[in-house]
Amino acid sequence: MRHYPVNSPQAAARIVALTVVADGDIAEAEIECLDRLAVHEQLGLTRHELLALLDTFCEDLLSSGQLNWADTCPVDERTLADLMGEIQDPALRLKVLRICVELAEVDAQVDDGESNVLIAAVEHWGLHHEMFRSSTRN
């Protein structure tokens, strides 16, 4: 698996890509959601760069032998921790988590794999209180 600089657009986009593939399918609704939210712009990438990173991430998963479409997160715990560890900026963590939540909910159903990614982000980044505060503001 490639490594990206901490807090880089590529590191953030890779977590978004993980959320997209976590349910075992890259749905058209997810691609439309990426465009609607202008995720590439939010992360400091072009649309082409974001989609290329999604492809590259899938290639990395295939070459590492971690790709597993069994309704669970398609990476092991250590890799998941490494990916989450590349995002250390608190504001970027919140931005990425909010994007990932939108993507996971785009089909009106959060699958186990997507849920595992979201839970890992909240736990690794210590966002338990922030998520509670966000839900009480609505």
From TrEMBL:
* Gene3D superfamilies in alphabetical order: TerB-like
Residues forming the Co-chaperone DjlA N-terminal domain are: 11-133
Q: What is this protein called?
A: TerB family tellurite resistance protein
- Organism from which the protein derives: Roseateles oligotrophus
